[in-house]
Design brief:
The chain is an alpha+beta fold. The protein has one helix and eleven strands; from the N terminus they run αβββββββββββ.
Length: about 140
């Protein structure tokens, strides 16, 4: 009778140790996955916060290049991250409609200025340009022609 009790206690002890080890391993893996995801989200958030730009034209004197039928807008990277500056990474709206445009550079480093050529016929009156970057930063610029 004494040996039977000890055997059953040993079996229960081993079962508890195996169960505790399994739970511990599962928690360790879960914490590791969460740590990696938090790190990745931190990098995305850092890029979003570090991405900023301004449209630096004079609102009453926007240059128009009549030889290519395009208005010229100057964009300055005021963020701390590089700004990918291409037709694929920017969206340009003029008076609420998407327009054709080209850019002068592919990457704007912090502090650098690039050019956007917005192709349209000459405008009159009050107008609004909206530029949206791939990270979701949106700037609007109201100007009069």
């Amino acid at each position: 009778m004494g040996f039977g009790e000890i055997a059953s206690q040993v079996i229960f002890y081993i079962a508890v140790i195996v169960l505790a080890s399994s739970i511990s391993a599962m928690l360790f893996v879960t914490v590791q996955k969460m740590s990696v995801e938090v790190s990745e989200q931190g990098e995305v958030f850092k890029k979003l916060i570090g991405t900023d730009f301004e449209i630096i034209n004079d609102p009453v004197n926007v240059p128009y290049n009549s030889s290519i039928n395009a208005y010229v807008f100057y964009i300055k990277n005021t963020g701390s991250e590089d700004l990918i500056f291409t037709n694929n990474t920017l969206t340009v709206l003029l008076n609420g409609s998407a327009v054709q445009f080209t850019t002068s550079a592919h990457v704007l480093k912090p502090g650098e200025t690039g050019t956007i050529y917005v192709y349209t016929s000459q405008l009159t009156g009050d107008n609004k340009l909206i530029v949206v970057s791939e990270s979701g930063v949106k700037k609007s610029f109201e100007f009069t022609v």
